[in-house]
Design goal:
The structure holds two protein chains of two kinds. By secondary structure, chain A is an alpha/beta fold. Chain A is built from 24 helices and 20 strands. In chain A, helix 7 runs parallel beside helix 8 and helix 15 packs across helix 16. The chains are: A alpha/beta, B mainly alpha. The interface between A and B is medium-sized, with 27 and 20 residues.
Chain lengths: 553, 394
């Protein structure tokens, strides 16, 4: 084992992916050095090649990809030239990987601890009993609740944040020299994310493990990494240590990333109490079977205003939207539209009532029929609601495409799969607009998008609201989005409205303790933010632990 | 006992040879670095596989050139001819036609092009049977049991290239007309089965609730009875109903097999439909207030084409085999209509002559071979389509 030199040394690496019979370069000529115990943050938009590069550090290329040229050295061993036996002896033992979705990566048929002990036993690092004891110790260090017992559960029996920590523990099981974290907190709520971040950072420091931390969230990487490397479409943009990268970015692209969260709309004046709201949710309760998921939910949405509904996953914000649309008829309470009560079930509503309330979905991939052309997707509501046919319909679709800033000639005959994520989301917006509604529900419309793209979508929605006087119900868990677009905010937790009010009031203290917890859990660009927060509140007053405490109070 | 011992010896021998092969390969330094790495990383089973391949090749040569087993020679020759024609067809498709069709052929494996070729030939034969066949399917000649080959020295007759059956009907003509009857009826039946199965399956997936429960349980009940036995039972009843009207029997048969096979289609359509119904675009269409027919035919169906098409190929084979089986048992397609299943049954006793006179035994084998060839061809195409639609690896 050579102790000198960097732990990972990647030189002039070119990685190619196969698309439609030809090989395209995904990563071009990137160098990467990583010292022992160092954490390198890889950031970039989706498609920048950051995951591919991360995997290449293990000498591995996904199916349909290949390492075309370049070298990858791990501790002096050339991973690309190494034979299967050597590579197998390294992976899992000295190099470990933590995937984005722990829920999809754990085998649902085995208990956590059995999956944990697999690598150490297989590699002959420890025997099963010792490894189990070690697992419990790791669970304790990662501050998982009931460390003695949690390993004996199946993956579906623990929460997402806990699963992600269990996976980190698993990666640690052989005390590797290098761990690759591939967006480990992207799928988590803010309060859970912060807990996982704190746990990962601690354990990486304790064992002096080197790590490559892949993410698209700049604020997160600022907390975790010693050094940051920025990628753009397979090319390296720049690299420097975290502090200087944050304070003094060199390249224009990096600066634009840093400036992303600048979009902000002034709060509109409050609607006068006499005005009839477009949508009024009155003491609504809903249940799935026997389980109550909503209780006494009330809020109003006025013409031309945006109401942001905020909360963690499971707080009932999407369920509230399902009640408004009529997909889940409420068991109690009413939903009024322009002062008239709507039938609870969408099947009993008139076409006119259905037309007035439209919805934009989180996942544009599943919201657009993959077998239909764009012209057909947008044209259908035009024809269905407004009865336009032939040339008239085509003209209207073209008009709509222009409204969402896409070129009609170019996009009319494409399939959804031929569009980028942001473009798909725009088509979703156009489909909603095609019905010429008064009210649109936006269900996490930006959470699957890159920050620059998301910003464009928010801007578009704001412009459309101004020109068409639309009312939005904006469901999100991202408080930065709320800050930029909302007029009023509704905070939900466990199916109840915790706090509600105009945006400016909501973002100035004092808050409801839960709102406070949500707000304080949003990572900031400052690299000392996490450390500071932990010092101020202590490890037990962040994340799930804090939520639990609040409930027991 | 001797066979068992020699079999064990062969297996042990092959295993040892495989190990030696790998060990030797690892010791030798080849000039090519890739070959070196290949041997270094070779699992033992691959080495054994190589040896097994060599032994198999040896047996092929042995039986082909030295013992000259007639059927084996035919099989090898047939295989070579088909492989060459499939390859030529593939090359043709890659170089002729539009951009789209060329791309399709470039991505196509040789097996799929073979299957496609066979299917095209069969459909051409079926469509133009009347023009291609030298005689009518019911024409009876004075010479019975003429052997295939057309060589008078071996008992053939140049007028009847594939010989005649025990009533003196020309077998080549009957094979050609059989394609029309068997394949045509099978195609019709499969279409009907799909119409019933997919409609009910999608309805069950979209409506859910009691409709889903009712149809699913009814289908379960139908599936609980072994298919062939059930078909036999129903066909017996149908034959009694139809009386002397032979055309009616065929209609009954189509309906019975279609209904029985639609149960499998229903299961698939429902499962595929359930996965599509939960998509957001279906929810969006529902919230728009779309009617059920629009949901099923415009939103769900286009997304279910790939698995349904693959199932169509498979189902076609099963329907085809069921018809052949029923005809073989005497209650399917009624004589004098030519049908491959009936032909196998009528000539089946000649298989006993295989040892003395391979040509005689070939009489029933021709119809059986026609069935087998089509089944294999359809499956090759289906495999390829499944591969394309699902990105399946193996």
């Amino acid at each position: 084992m050579s102790q000198s030199g960097p732990l990972v040394k990647i030189r002039n690496i070119h990685i190619e992916g196969r698309a439609d019979e030809i090989w395209l370069e995904i990563v071009r000529n990137v160098d990467l050095d990583l010292d022992r115990g160092e954490v390198l943050g890889l950031i970039g938009e989706s498609g920048a090649g950051k995951s591919t590069l991360g995997l290449a550090a293990m000498g591995f290329a996904r199916d349909g990809c290949r390492i075309a040229s370049g070298t990858v050295e791990f501790d002096g061993i050339d991973l690309i030239a190494a034979d299967a036996v050597t590579r197998r002896s390294l992976l899992g033992k000295r190099i470990a990987y933590v995937a984005q979705s722990a829920a999809a990566s754990f085998n649902p048929a085995h208990k956590l601890i059995n999956q944990h002990t697999e690598a150490p036993v297989e590699h002959g690092v420890m025997n099963r009993t010792k490894s189990q004891a070690d697992a419990i110790e790791l669970y304790r260090r990662l501050r998982l609740p009931n460390p003695e017992e949690i390993g004996f559960r199946y993956p579906h029996q623990v929460s997402g944040g806990q699963l992600q920590r269990a996976m980190t523990a698993m990666a640690m099981s052989c005390r590797p020299d290098l761990i690759i974290f591939d967006e480990p907190t992207t799928a988590l709520d803010v309060t859970t994310q912060i807990e996982v971040l704190a746990a990962i950072r601690d354990i990486v420091e304790q064992f002096n493990t080197a790590a490559i931390y892949i993410t698209h969230d700049l604020a997160v990487v600022a907390q975790m990494a010693d050094r940051i490397k920025v990628l753009l479409r397979g090319d390296q943009v720049e690299e420097s240590d975290t502090r200087s990268m944050l304070s003094d970015p060199q390249e224009d692209y990096t600066k634009s990333l840093w400036a992303v969260r600048s979009f902000r709309r002034e709060q509109k004046p409050l609607a006068s109490p006499q005005d009839i709201p477009v949508v009024s949710v009155k003491r609504v309760a809903a249940a799935y079977g026997e389980t109550r998921v909503l209780n006494e939910v009330s809020f109003d949405i006025h013409v031309g205003r945006t109401v942001a509904v905020v909360g963690e996953s499971g707080s009932g914000k999407s369920t509230a939207a399902r009640c408004i649309t009529g997909l889940l008829p409420p068991v109690e309470g009413t939903i009024e539209f322009d002062g008239v009560a709507l039938p609870p079930d969408y099947r009993q509503r008139s076409t006119e009532q259905l037309r007035q309330a439209q919805m934009i979905y989180q996942m544009a991939d599943t919201a657009l029929n993959p077998r239909k052309r764009i012209g057909e997707i947008i044209g259908r509501p035009v024809e269905f609601y407004l009865g336009m046919k032939g040339a008239e319909r085509k003209e209207r679709v073209e008009q709509l495409l222009e409204q969402i800033e896409l070129d009609p000639a170019q996009f009319m005959d494409r399939l959804p799969s031929e569009l980028s994520g942001g473009q798909k989301q725009r088509i979703g917006i156009a489909r909603a607009l095609a019905a010429e509604p008064k009210f649109i529900i936006c269900d996490e419309v930006t959470s699957a998008l890159d920050q620059l793209v998301a910003e464009g979508i928010l801007q578009l929605l704001a412009n459309l609201q101004d020109s068409l006087d639309l009312a939005y119900m904006f469901i999100t868990h991202d408080l930065a989005t709320v800050k930029s677009i909302a007029d009023e905010v509704v905070v939900m937790k466990n199916g109840e409205v915790v706090e509600t009010g105009p945006k400016d009031v909501m973002f100035t203290p004092p808050h409801h303790p839960y709102t406070d917890l949500l707000l304080s859990s949003v990572p900031e660009m400052d690299p000392d933010w996490l450390t500071g927060l932990l010092q101020r509140r202590g490890v037990d007053n962040i994340g799930d632990a804090a939520v639990d405490k609040m409930e027991s109070r | 006992m001797n066979i068992v011992i020699s079999l064990i010896l062969w297996i042990v021998g092959i295993c040892v040879a495989g190990w030696v092969f790998r060990a030797v390969g690892q010791r030798i330094r080849f000039p090519s670095e890739r070959l070196n790495i290949y041997f270094r990383d070779m699992p033992l089973m691959v080495g054994i596989g190589f040896m097994f391949g060599i032994v198999s090749l040896y047996f092929v040569f042995h039986f082909y050139f030295i013992e000259k087993v007639t059927f084996f020679v035919w099989a090898v020759q047939g295989f070579v001819v088909f492989a060459i024609s499939a390859w030529l067809f593939l090359m043709l498709g890659r170089n002729v036609g539009t951009q789209m069709s060329r791309k399709l052929f470039r991505e196509m494996p040789a097996t799929a092009s073979f299957g496609l070729l066979i299917i095209i030939i069969y459909s051409l034969v079926a469509v133009f049977a009347g023009a291609i066949a030298p005689y009518g399917q019911e024409e009876i000649f004075e010479k019975i049991n003429v052997l295939p080959g057309g060589d008078p020295a071996t008992g053939g007759d140049p007028r009847f290239l594939l010989g005649t059956d025990q009533l003196g009907r020309d077998l080549l003509s009957r094979l050609i007309f059989g394609a029309q009857n068997t394949v045509g009826i099978a195609f019709l039946t499969t279409c009907l089965a799909f119409l019933i199965g997919t409609t009910l399956g999608f309805l069950a997936a979209t409506l859910g609730g009691w409709f889903d429960q009712f149809t699913s349980r009814a289908i379960d009940a139908l599936m609980a009875i072994p298919q062939l036995i059930f078909a036999l039972l129903l066909m017996t009843i149908a034959t009694a109903w139809a009386g002397s009207n032979k055309g009616l029997i065929t209609v009954y048969m189509i309906v019975i097999i279609a209904v029985l096979d639609s149960t499998r289609v229903f299961r698939l359509a429902r499962a595929v439909g359930l996965n599509i119904v939960v998509m957001d675009y279906i929810e969006a269409a529902k919230l728009r207030g779309e009617k059920l027919s629009y949901l099923i035919f415009r939103e769900i169906l286009p997304n279910a084409y790939a698995p349904l098409l693959a199932e169509f190929g498979l189902r076609f084979c099963f329907v085809f085999l069921t018809i052949a089986a029923l005809s073989f048992l005497g209650i399917g397609i009624q004589p004098p209509l030519a049908d491959w299943g009936t032909m196998v049954r009528d000539l089946s006793q000649f298989i006993n002559f295989a040892v003395f006179s391979p040509l005689t035994a070939a009489l029933p084998l021709m119809a059986a071979g026609a069935i087998a060839l089509l089944t294999v061809a359809v499956n090759f195409v289906v495999d390829w389509m499944l591969h394309r639609s699902s990105g399946l690896k193996e």
